[in-house]
Amino acid sequence: MDVIQLIISGLSTGCVYGLIAMGFVLIYKATEAINFAQGDMMMMGAFITLGLTNSDYMALPFWISVPITIALMGCLGYLLDSLIIRRMFGQSQLAVVILTIALGFVARFIAGAIWGHEPQSLESPIAGEYFKISNIVIGVPEIWIILVTVFLTAVLFLFFAKTKLGVAMQAASQNQMAAYYMGIPVRRINSLIWALSGIVAAIAGILFASKNAIDPATGLLGIKAFAAAVIGGLGSLPGALLGGLLIGLIEPFASRYLDGDIARLMPYLVLVLILVFRPHGILSQVQKKKV
Amino acid sequence: MSFLKLKDVTLQFGGVTAVDNISFEVEEGEVFSLVGPNGAGKSTIFNILSRFYKPNNGEIIFDGKNLLEKQSHEVASLGIARTFQNIELFEQASVLQNLLVARQTHRTSNALSEMLFLPSVKKEEYRHRLKVEKVIDFLDLQAYREKFISGLPYGVRKIVELGRALAIEPKLLLLDEPASGLSVEETQDVAFWIEDIKKVMGITVLMVEHDMNLVTSVSDRVMALADGKKLAMGSPEEVKNHPAVIEAYLGVSEEFEK
Amino acid sequence: MRVIFKKSYEADIRLFKDGVQAFWYLLLLVIAVILPFLINEYWVGEFSLMLIWAIAGMGLMLLVGHTGQASLGHAAFMAVGAYSNVIMQNNFNIPFILSLPLSGILAGLVGACIALPTRKLHGIYMAIATIAIGVLAEDLIVILEPWTGGVGGIFAPSIKLFGLDFDRYNNVSGLYWLILAITVLIVLGYKNILRSPLGRSFAAVRDSEISAQAMGVNIGKTRTLSFAISCAITGISGALMGHFSYVFTNETFNIVISINLLLMIVVGGVGFIHGAFLGAMVVTFLPSGISFTRDAFFSDFHIIPGIESGIFGLILIVVILFEPMGLYGRWLKFKTYFDLFPFYRKDMFRRQKTYLKTERTR
Fold this sequence. Notes:
Chain A is mostly helical. Chain A has 11 helices and 2 strands, in the order H-H-H-H-E-E-H-H-H-H-H-H-H.
């Protein structure tokens, strides 16, 4: 029965990784930019909600803070792209990576300056609640996380496949010049993608914070989310979720059955192995180029 | 004994047959051109020769050696050099540095001696520089030696592309659309250079080209392709007047034959 | 306007373009040598630290700037150098004069072992793999506790060379000169690489793998070699850092340090040796700069923890947005302006804008 406990716990953590990874893949799919600040955006989303909800800050009702946070993070994403990332138009991928890493540094500093560096807990209505089936304890936050993630993934997948905006986004990601010629407002679309990514990050942050304490360095688990996105295959939204779930599951099982130090290694070891044998991830989207 | 021999080479990309049972032979010292409409498989044949692609079947013998056994970076040391249709120069380097890279196959020093920059390395650098200067003289690139590729006009880049291939001191030169995008005068220059390459340097040339004037003026033999299949092979005149070739390029005017 | 008239091939092959350039660099060297007589001990220590970062930066620069690969885990190789150097001296009584180069070679070998299976990876995949390596290294250090002292750390002995003791507390100037000498040697080696076929093969891999292959460059082998040399140089910097810090743990070379290293060379200017030095200057003197500014202008504010990272991030954002070629790039533009005056064209260094074409069909 232990195993089921581990599975649920692993799945829910995996869903958070998966959501962050999906936010990351959204941006990559659209602009082939690597957003190293995705984890920090998740952290900001969590902290903004905390800042709005917690009794020692603004003490708003949880169900009001959530939409406000989501809207704020959406705007933040949009502005981030339109004011800063857009200027990187035409520059190398490395430059954007460096820029987003730097943005992450700044975000971490701002969060620390506003809310301090001590770990804090979000006072959400679902935190700490649980129910029992036979003798398995299932936390309510964990169920919420899994459900919200599945729902969000389905919505995003359909969005890209079926809606006009989604298809336009795909076009812009594959060939910007051609997209321009087709009348697609590429720059506005890119900013919308960043907004969407910000929203996904915010949701991930809120979900994470209902289960764990947060502090400004929480964003660093974005690195694990990248690992997830890469394992799943960059450019594939379901792949990102898959990668996240994989890593989420590896961690608790590894620490349960393996020595503590080696357990910490496992996700990264798996990552390296996957990269060596299947360099483009499990559900990769790379095809051969004709020279 | 042919210099380059392709026999029944076939390459399929998924459902598309890019190259369909192609066989031909190139004699040493001749200029052999491949012509055909776009998508005929000409550049694909070049990419097979450069070993970027592996054909599904067939054999290729170059200078007595089995080319298909070699990897892409070994092709140059066999004596085959190529230019690229879309110019793949090293953008962040000068013309001189681009040409010097081509000397890799003639490199005699190893990493350690180079880090210490032993006198032997210095001597080698002089030797390479001398060879490269000969190519610069041949192509009149003196004015562009120090210039970075990223600032050069298209015509000059094409010449540097050619120079880089020549700096390898190849036995066989693969030219992928050397005249595309060039003006009439520049194309004439290319024609003169190809003649010199053949007669003075003794290099065999295999060329893909659309400009029929250039093809007719420099080629010894021509092969026409369409849809990956061989249409005709022979002297430029023979191929130009071959009915299958005319059909592929211009179509058959049956409907108006009333 | 200064025109350099070249009269022989030698002019392109030798280290310095002309006498004037040689003069300036030699002057710089002289100043560097007499530095300990000009400033107090604390600052000599800071400059030593700067040189160590510059060496680490040069290692990473060779890989990223000149071969076009990514590495976000290079601090792992500093760790290899640091730990192996100390272990060789403490456990095996190998003298510093041997343990330093050996630790570098060991770091290089480890780098080669990692580069080999990952040589087919490009771009972001390579970056992620190196992040994983960086994190793995941190944990491996803890696992190998009997050798490395794990989380508690390890103490580096003072450097014993030619009968003299060099360390930070007893002989700061001596340590500084030693590090300076090693730095100069590495710079020379680096410059030699750049002006030889090896360096050209690296640049070829960076700029166009396809045509590099057509020129006879073995991509896999070249990348591995570049990785190995890069890790060796970084390993040496790690060994020196170990001696300088006196004590170090698995946290001294963690993933944040790796990322900082990359940011450092971007600030300085990717693709230029000077970039490593300029970046090292920024990183080393930023904390002092911040406290100085605070004391001078904002004495009411207490320093918020983490402000160094925040300001470093801000500097980086400004550099990337307004001067992607880094500090040295900006300096080059100034110099070229004066060199070519009045013929300087505004967009001389402008890179062609590349419209995004998906990397997903390569």
